[in-house]
Design goal:
Blueprint (H helix, E strand, L loop, with lengths): L7 H13 L1 H10 L8 H17 L5 H7 L4 H12 L7 H30 L3 H17 L14 H9 L14 H6 L12 E6 L5 H14 L4 E5 L4 H13 L3 H6 L4 H13 L5 E5 L8 H15 L4 E5 L17 H18 L3 E7 L5 H4 L23 E6 L2 H6 L1 E9 L8 E4 L10 H6 L5
Parallel strand pairs: 1-5, 1-6, 2-3, 2-4, 4-5
Antiparallel strand pairs: 6-7, 7-8
């Protein structure tokens, strides 16, 4: 006879994957009954998780759960087991859901059996037979996977309740701190939204890596945790750029360790202010590079150790490997890049984060590049022009030789999904200090019409 309780270890595994993936949380919320749980601590924890999820639309983090039950040793022990759960393979979550589905079917069978037997014992043989046919059909067609689909009409009121709740923040803005760009992306408090993917395009040496460092620092200054995957150059070069950018020190001085005592004191105050946010750098200096699977795994490790990651920076697109086991030939490069672009969007959606990455333009004639009226567009993408489809925001970096001398740059918003494009955005740079955007100089400038 099937047990009407779930095993303790299985509950830990189910909750672990539910906290990692919203679709599985939806399944667990719909089908995990309190009667299936063995311990009171499990019931109290699950009751809090579901209430918070209903209210905010956001899957709670391990840290939030630990804070809520900071004085409850039984629940803290259970949370630790959930936190320590490590999937043995990529399909572990799917297998756990399948096991849960089999269990639910067993429970449905027991419930149906009781009703059929009751009808039979009352002498209602035809009714019991009809119930047998009905329940057999229902159980054979039953699948908890249907829980991942939402109804536009029937679920409208529930969605609206979540939207109107005070702490509803499933999606939120993460500014780039490039004022005009953020303004185009939502007004005074605009910027890319979590779940969105940003592609930066520029010619070789145009400052794409500096741009990605800038958005990383900007996010951290706004209180967000950042994961930076450095696939070109060394980890030391990447960290030196970051240190120069956030401390306001010459890049050449940072490399030599020449940071003044006064600057160190200021830096300590900045660190204290930003203690809840940070930038975690992962580099690949060995042969073979990182795959999308590697990046996904490392993001899980970062979130387990440090909490929710809000911004993912990948420098840059083409240097990531798909990791699907296929050896792409040069003639298949466009298919590889299209898969990478889709992978970036999947990362943004699964981690509810903003993804920033960059790609290099095709060869642009010198005469065109030095024309101040010319801007790079999607027509200048190398390989597959359609690889921008998964991206919500597509910005190109433009600079003539004369503009480079004056440290002026033009950003062209080629694609802003849900927002209006506009004329090129003029900004000042200060690359000596690893500053992609010199805000003070830009705001004080008067641009010629």
């Amino acid at each position: 006879m099937a047990n009407n309780k779930l095993a303790e270890n299985f509950i830990v595994e189910l909750l672990a994957v539910a906290l990692q993936k919203r679709t599985i949380m939806d399944i667990a919320k719909q089908y995990l009954k309190f009667s299936y749980l063995q311990e009171e601590s499990e019931k109290r924890m699950w009751q809090w998780i579901t209430k918070r999820y209903d209210k905010t639309g956001v899957v709670p983090t391990i840290g939030q759960m630990q804070q809520e039950f900071i004085d409850d040793e039984d629940i803290l022990d259970k949370i630790k087991e959930i936190k320590d759960f490590e999937p043995t393979n990529e399909n572990e979550a799917e297998l756990i859901v399948e096991t849960f589905e089999r269990y639910i079917k067993q429970m449905k069978f027991l419930e149906a059996n009781d009703k059929i037997v009751e009808a039979y014992n009352r002498g209602e043989k035809d009714a019991s037979y009809d119930l047998l046919i009905k329940y057999a059909d229902d159980i054979s067609k039953f699948s908890i996977q249907n829980a991942k689909f939402e109804s536009v009409f029937n679920d409208f009121e529930e969605r609206q309740t979540k939207r109107k709740s005070e702490d509803y923040n499933f999606r939120f803005k993460v500014p780039t701190n490039i004022d005009e760009l953020d303004y185009r992306l939502g007004g005074q408090f605009g910027g890319p939204e979590t779940g969105e993917c940003v592609l930066w395009l520029g010619d070789s040496g145009s400052g794409k890596s500096q741009c990605l460092v800038h958005v990383g620092v900007a996010a951290a200054r706004n209180g967000h945790r950042v994961a930076h995957f450095q696939l070109e150059g060394t980890r030391e070069q990447c960290l030196n750029r970051y240190d120069a950018a956030w401390t306001g020190t010459l890049y050449s001085d940072v490399k030599m360790g020449n940071i003044t005592d006064k600057r160190m004191e200021i830096s300590k105050r900045i660190i204290k202010k930003l203690r809840k946010s940070d930038i975690f750098v992962s580099s690949e200096e060995n042969w073979g590079g990182k795959t999308l699977v590697d990046i996904h795994r490392e993001l899980k490790e970062m979130e387990k150790a440090h909490g929710k990651i809000d911004v993912i920076v990948i420098d840059y697109l083409e240097l990531v490997e798909v990791g699907d086991g296929h050896n792409y030939s040069p003639s298949e490069e466009r298919f590889r890049q299209a898969k990478l672009a889709k992978g970036m969007k999947q990362l943004a959606m699964e981690f509810n984060a903003v993804v920033h990455t960059a790609t290099q333009s095709n060869s642009i004639p010198e005469e065109q590049r030095n024309d101040p009226a010319f801007v790079i567009t999607r027509a200048n993408l190398s390989e597959d022009k359609g690889k921008i489809r998964p991206f919500d925001i597509f910005v190109t970096i433009n600079q003539t030789r004369d503009e480079m001398k004056e440290e002026i740059m033009r950003l062209h918003t080629d694609k802003l999904r849900d927002y209006q494009n506009g004329d090129p955005i003029f900004i000042y740079n200060n690359f000596a200090f690893s500053r992609f955007y010199d805000r003070k100089k830009t705001m004080n400038a008067t641009w010629d019409e």
